């Protein structure tokens, strides 16, 4: 075969090959929400994670507000703590393993940590640099790795500037 035909043959092979398909933000968010609702463990809290194509609400647990009268403690209300995460604000996503705790995923960036009775009407918020969520002990390690990749993918689709993990390798 002549050299002049080689580039055309290579282009023809590439064009007729299997089409490439990347997940959309909506597809990634739906997959991520399904996995997080299956595996995330929030001590003392039963509400699930909520994920959209551009943001997530990650429950962090609950705090009881109590009042003691005549030696008896009464629960007045339960305040729910959660992190509101915009994927565009994520700078890093890592899996954290600790032999004394369950495995978690830590998102680094600029987020809001809020407390409220519902996620729609926060009673107060402050800036937080991390948002963590913990997995049940039965969660397969490879599934957590896939979840980390999905979060990184959503962050990149939303324009986040992620830390380059291969920078010093």
Task: Characterize the structure shown.
The chain is built from three helices and seven strands, in the order H-H-E-E-E-E-E-E-E-H. With 169 residues, it is an alpha+beta fold. Strands 1, 2, 3, 4, 5, 6 and 7 form a seven-stranded antiparallel sheet that branches. Strand 5 and strand 6 form a beta hairpin. It is elongated, with a radius of gyration of 22 Å.
Unreliable sequence segments: none
- Strand coverage percent: 35-45%
Order of helices and strands: HHEEEEEEEH
Q: What is the CA-CA span between the terminal residues?
A: 41 Å
- Number of distinct beta strands: 7
- What Rg is obtained from the alpha carbons, in whole angstroms? 22 Å
Which of globular, elongated, flat, extended, rod-shaped describes the shape? elongated
The average pLDDT is: 76
User: Which percent bin holds the helix content?
Assistant: 25-40%
Number of helices: 3
| Main pleated-sheet profile | 7 strands, antiparallel
Structural class estimated from helices and strands: alpha+beta
What characteristics describe this protein?
single chain, 169 residues, 3 helices, 40% strand
Short description:
With 169 residues, the protein is an alpha+beta fold. It has helices at residues 6-16, 25-39, 141-157, and strands at residues 40-41, 50-51, 55-69, 72-86, 90-96, 104-116, 122-135.
